[in-house]
Amino acid sequence: SDLNIATNKSGIATNVTDIADAVMKTGVQTITGTKTFSSTIIASSIDSDGVLELNSSAGAISIGNDDIDQAINIGTQGERTVSISNGAFASTLNLGNVTGVTAVNLNSGSGGITMTTGTDGAISIDPNGSGNLTLGSADNTSTSLSGNVINIDAAGALTLDGAAGVNIAGNAAEVDVTTTGAVDINGANITVDASAGISLDAAAASNVTTSVGALTLNGAAGVDITSTLDVTGDTNLNSTTTSTNSTTGALVVDGGVGIAKNLNVGGTIDVTGDTNLNSTTNSISSTTGALIVDGG
Questions:
Q1: Which end of the chain has a smaller Cβ tally under 10 Å, C or N?
Q2: Residue 94: what pLDDT?
Q3: What gap in Å lies between CA 168 and CA 185, rounded to an integer?
Q4: Using CB atoms within 10 A of its CB, is residue 243 exposed (0-12), middle (13-18) or buried (19+)?
Q5: Does the predicted TM-score (pTM) go above 0.70?
Q6: Residue 19, phi-psi category: left (phi > 0), alpha (psi -120 to 50), beta (remainder)
Q7: What is the pLDDT at residue 74?
């Protein structure tokens, strides 16, 4: 049968048959058959003192699907739990769209917001285009990312900016910085502390340069140079250790010494081996010749 609704000139329903009679009655009412009705109602309210269910077995249930620019409110009053698509069946929940200035706002009190998936489920957050993704703000106590493996991949530059510093802790594992480009470290003071050794290994010739001030190498048990030491500038050894034989003194050389220019010795010269003077300068007095001796 048909459902007939009569309205007055103001569009307010004045007579509803069939379904209205059923609703007005007490107890459980069942309406069968196809009921079709249309009307313009200025205001309508459905209030149930028991369970209120709206189901369809033949098609979709649509609320607010007409092109009418009015708000739709769900659960705006009372302290309640609002559940959407949280049954035991696989469902897809669509929220919002990408048209124009469409916005989706999620707000909570101190109870927080939790996003969780089932086993092996993924969570993707993509601002798309030139949009920005912001996690946390300056007034947050902390912002944490936790996972078995965390990958951060930037098509452009990746910037870590900490007003109170940036800490990178590898715990017992290695911290590996790898790039095919250059690694540039800038700072007022740079300190490298290691509980074990420090190794610097370069595949090409390398420079350690200070633009101002001296470069200090201080090894508790000495400084070992295992290859050739080539010094362009002057070399000053400040140690005052005297030499009593060929294995003691401020400078001990296991091999030979080649000197291209003058050698000035302020103390005694003690030669254990042969002394060969190759100069061919003739002596014509006590102050001339290849070897001049003021003493004995």
A1: C
A2: 92
A3: 15
A4: middle
A5: no
A6: alpha
A7: 92
Tell me, rounded to whole angstroms, the distance of Cα 38 from its chain centroid: 58
Residue of 195, 238, 193 whose CA lies nearest to 214: 238
Task: Using alpha carbons only, give the angle 95, 97, 103 rounded to the nearest 5 degrees.
Answer: 85
Distance CA 208, CA 229 (A): 14
CA–CA separation, 168 vs 159, rounded Å? 14
How far is Cα 4 from Cα 36, in angstroms, rounded to an integer?
A: 8
pLDDT digits (tens, 9 = 90+) for 208-238: 899 899 889 998 998 999 899 999 989 999 9
Cα-based angle 145, 147, 151 (whole degrees, multiple of 5): 80
SS3 269: coil
Phi, psi of 127 (to 5 degrees): -65, -20
Tokens of 94: 């669509």
Residues whose CB falls within 8 Å of the CB of residue 80, separated by 6 or more in sequence, listed in order: none
> Which amino acid, 260?
A
**Amino acid at position 226, single letter:** T
Dist. CA 37–CA 51, nearest whole Å: 24
Place of tokens 């200025």: 42
DSSP code of residue 19 = H
Please name the residue that has the structure tokens 């509980």: 195
Ramachandran area for residue 226 (φ above 0: left; ψ -120 to 50: alpha; else beta): alpha
pLDDT one-digit tens code per residue, 165-177: 898 888 888 889 8
